Structures are given as C-alpha cells and as structure tokens.
C-alpha cells in the first residue's frame, strides 16, 4: 500500500494496471514541479495576469447587517471563465506541458471544468477532448458551444446514466488507452492519488489569499469558513490553509436536492457509505449491491455521487463538518444575494450561502465568516428561470 | 489443490493451450447464464464470470452494455453465488473465476465474501481496479486459503512492475493485449510480442492473453509465447447474435479450442 496516497482510510489508487506507471510519472513530475521556482513563477504569472487573481475578499455589508455577523465572500466568481475551476486547470496543464504531453482530456458535468480545460488548451495550444454525458450535453448546450468555440472536441457519452459519473468513466477508459501521450485533467478533488493532492495544491490559492485578506481586514482569523462540496475542489482549496488553525470552524455544504430523506439528493456524506469509485475510496451513494446510485441536485456541479477522499477524512476526524442544503434553500439564498448585494452566484455557491445564513444566527456581531463564492451564476440563468417559473429544473 | 492450478497442470502435461471465456452473469438472465456455462463443460478450461457493476471503467462498450442490462434484470453478486452453488451441486467442476470491481467486494464485506467464495466454489478473482499497491487487504484475507486465488493482471506498459506483480501470482497471469479496456477488436499494442515474451520469460505460471481476441487466428503471431487465450466481448457478441443459444456457445468454444491446439496453426 502506498501510504502517502491515503487520508486515513480514504484515497488510494484503485485503477487498472495500465495506469499505474502513469500515476507514478504524474506524481513524480508534480512533486518536482511544485518545488521548482520557475514552475511556480509561471503558474503564478498566469493566475495573476490571465485569471485575474487575487480575487477580492468582499465584506457583504447589507447581508452582514441583516444577519448580525460579518459575512465575507471570497470572490472566485470573478475569475476568468467564471469560477474557481481555472486555478486547477492551469496548474495541471502547465504540468502536462512540462511532461511533454500533447493532448489533454477532461470530464465535465455542467461544463464549467470542461470550459476551463478547453480555455487552458487553447492558451497552450494543446489538443483537447472533453467527455460529457449526453443528458448534460442537452441541458448545457451553451457550455458545449463555448468549448467548441475554444477548439475542444466534446464527446457526448451514451453509457449508464449519461451524466457526469459516466463521463468520468469514459475519460478514465480513454486515459487508460492513451496515457502515453495524454494527460487527464481531473477537475474535482477526486480520482486516484496524486489527483486529490494536486487539485488541493492548485486550489489552495483560495485560502492562502483569504487568510491574509481576512488578517488585513480584521487583524485575526475568521471564526467560520464555508464552501459547497460536490467532488470538493473549491472547498478543499478554501479549507487548505485553515485546516491547521484549529479555532477556525470548517463547514462543507453538500446538495440535499429535494431532501436527504428522498431518493433525489447528492448528499454522499450524510447518506453515503465508504466505497471505491473513480480510483479512490471515499463516501459514496450506493445501493445494497454496491452499485453507484444517481445523484440529484438542481446544481449540476454538485450532482456527483461521491466526494473527495480528504473530505471523508476531515469528516471522520471531526475537523470539518458537512451539512446538507436543499434545492429550495439554495435558490432562496441565490435570490437573496442577487437582490441585496447585486451578485448573481452559481447555484453551487448558493448552497454555501444558504447554510451561511443559518449559521449566522448563532454568531455575534464581532465574529466573522468567510463563504467561498466559487462561481458566478451566468451559466445558470436558464435553470434559474425554469425554477422561478415553477417548472422544476433542467438539470 | 485449487481447481485452476490443477487444470493448468493437466494442460501442461498434455502440452495444450488453455481457452478461457468471459461472460457477464445475468445476461439476459441467470437461467440462461447457467445454460451457457454448462454448454462449455469439458471444453472451456476456465470460465470467467463477470459480476456486473454500475461503473465498469476497465470495460469497453460490449461489456458495459452487458453489465447495464444484467443489472436492470436483477443480476447481483448474491445471485451469482446462488448460480455457483447450483452448478457445483450439479457436479460441474470447471474452474470459475469471478471478474469484478473492488466496490462490489467491499460492499459485500471482505471476509464474508471470501467465505462465500470458498463455499460456492469460486476458484479465482480478477479485480481490474485493484493494482498491486492496493491488494494487501484482500491478500491478507485470502492468506492460507487454497480455494480462491487472486489472478494478477499485467499490461503492455507494466515494464519494471512485472517482477513484483508476478512474485505472489498464482494460477495464471492475465496479460492484456492492449492498453485501456476490453473488446478492442484485435488492436493489440504495438509492442505486444516483446512484452509477452518478457512476461513469459520470468513467469513460473502460465501466461494468458486477453482483450480484443475474436478467433484463434488472432493469436497466431504469439502462439509460441502464450499458454492460452481469453475471449470476452466477442463471446458476448456471439451469444447475442445467436439469441443466447447454448449450442452456439459450445460450437464456438469447441472450434476455438481445437484450432488453437492443432499443430501448425
């Protein structure tokens, strides 16, 4: 057993033999790269000049007043391409380039990670193929268009449930076939080691900045740090620099869909059991035979039946707490932020906000929280409109 | 002695190559699966029975579809054990290997699973998402158990990993002919001959090749290296095309086995 691949009993490298040398190669290249000042400098250059970092830590004044505690928003929605996903894509694509790979592949659900990958591929002149479930291709036609404009090939996956889980399966199969010249850019904090570690590393700029920004504004650490959790990439980035600060409460918000007592949710922490999927051992929604169940959420980005292994570990050790928020609660929070602060958040991020408003009630005026606003809501306008018309959701 | 190892010794004594078929349990139902297994009695050397899983990442389209349909029809590990029980009680002594994903084992409970394998006569396990580095837990549970053995997989890009993989290997070693997934019509890896020769030269147990094989003629280029062949996706296609006719299964395996073992193939 490769001990460093594990977070407690979670993580690992559950992939076919064909990929083991590849993972080892990626691991070595990654460890070298992050110790190489030239690599880090280039990565930071692109984060600064291309993505537009650092992102502001905005004190939401009207919300803070209403809820009686300081609510800071980490504005990942202001990144180029509209979400935190680009932070990780640029790190991984620079690594792919360094390893001499000429082709990148990615899986995508709502299309945000796909768009970010297609963007990076255009920037670095790499061939790019994005795997997307045929159901998602239909629902997210605008993002399909964006990816194609950027020069990526979008493969519509017809297999199993035709959604993110199946797109990921297909990306893994393609990777196993073509690993000799292809780099798989995983967008979530999932997958076999070293992927969860890489995603955390490349998303940790979120908490590194936020910690310093909060110090500058308040002269101390925040009391609570919060983020939404699907696979868990923005949340692990938001937690990273606070994990060792024991007095900071960490809260991950997962999608309860129509409620965790229905069959339509994506709450793998609240309702799942440990199991193995997509190369890693973590909490998973599964049936009595161990088959993976479909996740449901109004937010396509949280619509995944598993969660990153480090989150499973943080949950079991009690370092972080994970709570569910329903579609309705998230949509209400989305409208509230839109109308009180003039910011339309992604539906994913609205889950974190919804819990922030609940949590604020037990906090005082002197205390403060940081909520990761992982993305903007432009991509969700069709879904929001359908929801407001009472048509349920397109996802 | 383990049924697989016993069969391998018998073949060696007769200087014959092994023929192994893969079939997804529960396609189109458990009763038909049983008939297809029984039809191969006395011909096919090892039956590889696929336990359907919702997310078969090591499988190509044919086995993915087969797994999906089997699950829809109610196939499960539990029902596969029932099937094993039935064929063993009926006197079928053919070696049987379960090909399954690790989550299915974990979900059943490791120790309960291994006990059940011994009880129902499951002779071997192929777990495509359990590479050497992750095998410790399963190996510990299998220790001192001669009934069920873990079959090791080797890939064309395994390179320096091969000696480590072969070290604890039993039964036979399963060499995949290409990178990636099952069922890529005879599209073998460009260095397949060199790779198979390398495995053969250091393996103390028989070397089988699988992935993308359809007919005995597909393995002519490596017939002097390998000790047998595994056919999966193509066998499923034959079954589908024949309307899941057990006679078609018997005809196909008999012909393959004969052609593979006739001199000057």
Written as H for each helix and E for each strand, in order along the chain, the element string of chain B is: HEHEHHEHHEHEEHEHEEHH
Strand order, biggest sheet of chain A? 3-4-14-9-10-13
Shape of chain A: globular
CATH topology of chain B: TIM Barrel
Biggest beta sheet summary of chain A: 6 strands, mixed
Structural class of chain B: alpha/beta
The rounded Rg of chain B comes to 17 Å
Count of alpha/pi helices of chain A: 16
List the strand order in the largest sheet of chain B. 5-4-3-2-1-9-8-7-6
pLDDT below 50 for ≥5 consecutive residues: which ranges of chain B? none
| Number of β-strand runs of chain A | 14
The share of residues in helices of chain A is: 40-55%
What does this structure look like?
The complex is a heterodimer of chains A (395) and B (265). Chain A is 43% helix and 19% strand. With 395 residues, chain A is of the alpha/beta class. A six-stranded mixed beta sheet of chain A has the order 3-4-14-9-10-13, sandwiched between helices. Chain A has a four-stranded antiparallel beta sheet with strand order 1-2-12-11. In chain A, strands 7-6-5-8 form a four-stranded parallel beta sheet, sandwiched between helices. In chain A, helix 14 (327-341) crosses helix 15 (347-360). The model of chain A has no long low-confidence stretch (mean pLDDT 95). With 265 residues, chain B is α/β, with parallel strands linked by helices. Chain B has a single domain, classed as Alpha-Beta Barrel (TIM Barrel). Chain B is 43% helix and 14% strand. Chain B has eleven helices and nine strands. Chain B has helices spanning 3-14, 30-38, 61-72, 77-89, 102-108, 110-120, 136-142, 162-167, 192-202, 233-241, 246-261; strands spanning 18-24, 46-50, 96-99, 124-126, 149-150, 152-154, 173-176, 207-210, 228-231. A nine-stranded parallel beta sheet of chain B has the order 5-4-3-2-1-9-8-7-6. In chain B, helix 8 links the parallel strand 6 and strand 7 (173-176). In chain B, helix 4 runs parallel beside helix 6 (110-120). The mean pLDDT of chain B is 95. The interface between A and B is large, with 40 and 45 residues.
